[in-house]
From TrEMBL:
It is found in: Secreted, Cell wall. PANTHER family: POLYGALACTURONASE QRT3. InterPro entries: PbH1, Pectin_lyas_fold, Pectin_lyase_fold/virulence, QRT3-like. Keywords: Cell wall, Secreted. Its main location: secreted. This is Uncharacterized protein. One of its GO terms (molecular function) is polygalacturonase activity.
Amino acid sequence: MLDSNFRGGGIFLNDAVRITIDNCYVTHFTTDGISVNGGHETLIRNTFIGQHITAGGDPDERKFSGTGIALNGNDNAVTDVVIFSAGVGVMITGQANILTGVHCYNKASGFGGTGIYIKLPGLSQTRIVNSYMDFTGITVEDPVQLTISDTFFLGGAYVVFKSVKGVAKGVSVVNNMFSGISHAQYSLVSSTAGAFPRHALRNITGNVVVVESDVPVTASVFAAVSQ
């Protein structure tokens, strides 16, 4: 365990190359739990990070601050890491980083927290896969070459694309799970000549939108949901 005793940060790497941070427990930091500045190919794995020691639902969650992991460098990997209390779970300001198996419940979005923040407008080049956003979301500024896949979003967790210069290219958000659908809108465009079917939204259970028509028809269905 690395206990910062609320006097500063935890682990700081400056212009380091090929460093592994493994099986650590970093707590009671005021700035960053782990900070990687420059360099590349740092591996952070099997680690627990939290400003306050809690198992969730902390009555002082609104007061959580600091950043669990700050990645200001390229080609780093964060694997099997839990961030359980911080204002921001992972702050990314470097390119070509990958996060796998990361569980963020650092501070709920409703309290102003962010699970993963990619603050690199136009140069994201980040992959987030097989992770768990637990009541806290992902924010990306001007996403370019971004992948978010096979990740579970619980509660108020969501993905936000924040416009800085209005850029978005090569963005892939696929095969993710959200906790539910609270509102849905759809449109049905029939490609069958002369057909004018009656149709209705029948179900929105389990993150699936079901639209049913009264007769068989070839059509395209477009849906927009609020989760």
